[in-house]
Design goal:
It is a single chain. By secondary structure, the protein is α+β, with helices and mostly antiparallel strands. Helices cover 57% and strands 15% of the residues. Strand 1 and strand 2 form a beta hairpin. Helix 1 runs antiparallel to helix 3.
Length: 185
């Protein structure tokens, strides 16, 4: 019974790690990465559509993304969506292809991004702790209902804490890696 609970808890914690990785990917580092456009929605024939469903996005080099729409009539809509988004980049439209130069980050902008990263990491740590709390509540309920012994419940709490420590350390490692990536000039 405790084993299933621990497996379920670990699955939820792994989900929080995946969400952290995805959030960190979306934070611009000064390098051309197509994932920074993931949240940009284009008004395509009245429907908000992700850019990657309308175009091929490639990184020409470390400082340039190239967006090639499959439908040439979508070029101006894609350009408008990028300008309206909060990614802070200025697209260059040559009629058939959009080039998205990625300027180097200023020191001030790097520090802002690190603050955003730390806030995001703390939110994910809170998610992990909430998962821990829920798991511990379930262990207590099992003990109260007489389904597990006091010793099994104690071991269950200890295992939940080990999982919590492991996944919080993983978030810290992801934060440290991304912070290093952002701060390198």
């Amino acid at each position: 019974m405790i084993k299933e609970l621990l497996n379920e808890t670990e699955v939820h914690m792994k989900g929080a790690i995946e969400a952290t990785k995805k959030e960190f990917q979306n934070i611009r580092t000064g390098r051309a990465n197509p994932s920074i456009l993931e949240r940009v929605l284009v008004d395509y024939y009245g429907a908000p559509t992700p850019i990657n469903q309308l175009a091929n996005i490639t990184s020409a080099d470390a400082r340039m993304l190239v967006i090639q729409p499959w439908d040439k009539s979508a070029v101006s809509a894609i350009e408008k969506a990028i300008l309206k988004s909060d990614i802070g980049l200025n697209p260059v439209n040559d009629g058939g292809v959009i080039r998205l130069p990625i300027p180097p980050l200023t020191e001030e902008r790097r520090k802002e991004l690190v603050k955003v990263l730390k806030k995001e990491a703390e939110e994910k740590r809170v998610v992990i702790r909430n998962i821990r709390r829920d798991a511990n509540d379930k262990v207590k309920a099992l003990e109260k209902d007489g389904k597990v012994t006091e010793d099994e419940a104690k071991r269950g709490h200890d295992e939940v804490q080990k999982l919590t420590d492991k996944y919080i350390a993983e978030i810290d490692k992801l934060l440290e890696h991304k912070e290093k990536e952002i701060m390198e000039v």
